[in-house]
Amino acid sequence: MKTVLLVDDDHDFADLACRIVEYLGHQACVASDLAAARQWLESQHFDHIFLDFMLPDGSGLHLVDEVRAAGINTPITMVTGHPSVKTALSQLCHDGLHYLTKPVDADDFRNALSPVKQKVKCSESQAHFGVLLGESATMQHLYKMIERVARTDANVMLMGESGVGKEMFARAIHNASDVEGELVNVNCGAIPKDLIGSELFGHEKGAFTGANAQKVGVFEQALHGTLFLDELTEMPIEQQPNLLRVLETQTVTRVGGTKPIDVQCRVISATNRSVEDIATNDVLREDIYFRLAVFPIHIPPLRDRKEDIPLLAEHFLQGLNKKGNSNFVIKAADMDRLVEYDWPGNVRELKHTIHRAYIMADLDEHNLVFDANFASPFAQAKRMVEHAQANQTSVPPQVGSSSRVHSAAIPTPEVKPGKTIEEVERALIYQTLESVDGNKTLAARMLGISTKTLYNRLNAYEGEAQA
User: Fold this and answer.
1) Pairwise CA distance, residues 188 & 239, whole Å
2) N- or C-end of the chain: fewer Cβ atoms within 10 A?
3) Res. 168 pLDDT band, cuts 50 70 90
4) From CA 45, how far away is CA 414, in angstroms rounded?
5) Which residues contact 75 (CB under 8 A, 6 or more apart)?
6) What angle do CA 198, 62, 19 make, to 5 degrees?
7) Whose CA is closest to 339, among 356, 359, 314?
8) 57-109 pLDDT per residue, tens
């Protein structure tokens, strides 16, 4: 049974839709405007939302933005009685939205609530299992592992650095599996300590202060499907025995409840910690590790499969071009730089770099414009701190870990005992300008300062020289 929220100001339609949903064996709640819908969402979890496109206090799309911004991945079906906006709504499907136009019958609700799962066939022209890209030998090996484990109900533990795409691999395993249920994601590190039990196992109405309605936990939501526990090792160690009990008995008891509820689902967990880290730092009980890591999969960092970088970069760019109705391209020289860079932030960093370059694209030449250094300001600052700690110095290092030094990399000024910070700063600015042939805009971007600040510094230096 699913819990459904119907948001529509047409009372006759809402009443009929409510009866259809209940006839199909599900529970329905009704809101007539955005304000009422927000109140429902604050107090209860829903498995599906049917949302009118036009409401008295605004567009239903505003609620979609709020729900997604809050990290809620509940399926949403837009409903409209205006055929003229059907085409516009259909264009939203790539964002996880579906649409229906009135009149709506029982079959429409049945198909929306229990969609027929399409088996995804792999080919060189599309994503493997619907979500994974890459044709390297490393990825081919991972595809075989996914195909093997998908035939079983074994629990899987995904291990790899932050940004390698562990959630995408979890979805790939789910897509490849012959299961009826859905994939339910939960970030264990983002759940407040006192709400972990309620989030995982659910609670009954009145179980504690603020429990104004019954809540279905993620184990129940993933019935006959897949439960993805991301950042598992961030769950407090004292909360883990309850998780072990569920894994052993395949039942949950809601907080405040007394009746055990059967739960059958594959559990996929993920962590960016190594096995050695897990074993020595007491972040995961050993008995839980062995139950969840029946089939461990190590996802390699992007630097270990660089041959996949052009494919990923083009994929991200195609998505941006499609969304922005543009036709920008990546120059061959820039693609070489993308392949050469080591990507400490992995696929996530590559995606964000392509997005930044797309925003700065040359509108005349239709080329993406990349920063002199791919690393984000956050990554640059982190590397500077790590370098200073390792070498006990405050000298800014060259950003990037590849062996080849780019001509546009930030130069390291000569530092000797007795030099002031102002002198080191001046040397860094002048050397950076020299490395980019005096291009002040590019130099300012490399230095992480505004062009105005750079001009102010140069004017001050000139004033000191004249004095």
Assistant:
1) 11
2) C
3) very high
4) 59
5) 47, 48, 49, 96, 98, 112
6) 65
7) 314
8) 877 878 888 887 787 878 888 887 644 444 444 444 445 567 777 777 887 88
